Amino acid sequence: MSQHRILGLSRRQFVRTLLATSAFGLTAKLGTGCTSGSSSGGDPTATGEAPAAGSTEPMVIGFIYVGPKDDFGWNQSHALGASGTKEKLSFVQLVEEESVPETSAAAESMRSMIDIDGAKVLFPTSFGYYDPHVLAMAEEYPDVQFFHAGGLYQEGVHPKNVGTYYGFIDEAQYISGIVAGLTVASGKMGFVAAKPIPTLLRNINSFTLGARSVNPAATVQVIFTGDWSVPLKEAEAVNSMADQGIEMVTCHVDSPKVVMETAEKRGMFCGGYHTDQTSLAPTGYLTGAEWDWTAFYSGLVEELAAGKTLMDGSIPHVLRGGLKEGFCKMSPYGPAVSDEAKAAADAAIAQFMDGTMVIYKGELKDNKGNVVIASGGEMKQQDPILEQMNYLVEGAIGTI
Fold first, then answer.
1. Which of 33, 120, 121, 351 sits in a 20 to 30 Å window from 282, CA-based?
2. Before 132, cis peptide (omega within 30)?
3. Helices marked H in 149-305 — which ranges?
């Protein structure tokens, strides 16, 4: 009989049932070691091992989300990637948990997926999961591979079974900036942001640089809410911007839903993030920077199924890509976008696709007047220095 299925219950459900049955004085702990070669009718995932190279045996992979899977944002984009991977690869068995905070709860979710569900590959998708939770779990489970969204792996410092991945979605933000710059007559735009971390600052700066590439007088008012999901503060930020005469707003928060809906109510233009939010603002939506995780996840899982690993170096510890590599894409253009704006945006997209576009080039100043890239200098998308960004560029109004 399979150790993973008892009377139709998953191992996780079974363990929780045992732990809840205190009236019988039961103490239960299921180990991770399972014998291979289960009998006919047993669960083929009982070993919890990834498929052998070239095989199509079930592979258990776990996804952990910091918010709900239907948030119109970050979590939904990864959940769509996970489900798309399962649809594409029949041997994938998904284990998912949503609304897991960036606390020790994340570590417990990972441990549960490994010990109970037999997962050998985990995708903890929130920034705050990485240090210390992913790093600690990786030390505890050296045969499990952890792929974290957004962290930056440090060679020789972090465990070899840890990889990090993120997309150059600031390319799509740059395109959104071009569209906004050619649509907003006043040039006054806003950006609602969660935390002043490098990946977020890069999105703000790329959006600003895109807008100023077509309208040098454009400004972007930045308001930080302090956390990934604070609906009340997000709504207050948009309303404050509208009261100041700002005509367009975009964002980098976990769920853009409140920002889009508030902007639509206030008669503002808006630009989306993470997923397509056209339905939330049918009048004012211009376009948006979307993730496209299905291609990335399915390609990576196929490599894992072929026997490649982080530990032997056949899978890089730092995985990055942009529009060209299919990590991200643009939302459809909204009804307010002119033919001129579409043409300019499409031309910039073509430059990203052929590798000729460079967003960060000199002379570039921050919003305090300091030169961050000298005249003639440039930093291409793969430059690790961009992942350490700690400034707002000229034209972005706000402080870190």
1. 351
2. yes
3. 170-181, 198-214, 231-243, 257-265, 293-305
Contacts with 99 (C-beta within 8 Å, 6 or more apart), sequence order:
65, 66, 67, 68
Going by the DSSP 8-state scheme, the letter that residue 86 receives in this structure is: H
Q: Does an H or E element contain 106, and which?
A: helix 104-115
Q: Are residues 228 and 240 in the same domain?
A: yes
**Domain co-membership, 254 together with 382:** yes
| Residue 104, in any domain of the structure | yes
Assess whether 128 and 161 both reside in one domain.
yes
Asked if 236 and 345 sit in the same domain, the reply is yes
| Residues 277, 310 within the same domain | no
Chain center to CA of 54: 29
- Identify whether 363 is preceded by a cis peptide bond (ω within 30 of 0): yes
Q: Which 8-state DSSP code applies to residue 393?
A: B
**Contacts (Cβ under 8 Å, ≥6 apart) of 375:** 362, 363
User: Is 162 in the same domain as 194?
Assistant: no
What pLDDT, in 10s, does the model give residues 80-97?
999 999 999 999 999 999
Residue 356 burial (CB count, 10 A): 8
Segment 374-384 shows an average pLDDT of: 94
What is the C-alpha separation between 231 and 166, in angstroms, rounded?
Answer: 25
269 beta partners: 248
Residue 14 domain-assigned (yes or no) = no
Q: Which of 241, 244, 206, 246 is nearest to 225 (CA)?
A: 241
272 and 297 belong to one structural domain? no
Decide if 36 is inside a domain.
no
Two tokens, residue 104: 């020790």
Chain Cα centroid distance, residue 297: 12
Whole domain around residue 217: which residue ranges?
Answer: 170-292+338-397
Contact assessment for residue 252 and residue 231, using Cβ atoms and an 8 Å cutoff: no
In a domain? residue 392: yes
| 386, burial (CB in 10 Å: exposed 0-12, middle 13-18, buried 19+) | buried
pLDDT tens profile 95-123 = 999 999 999 999 999 999 999 999 999 99
pTM: 0.80
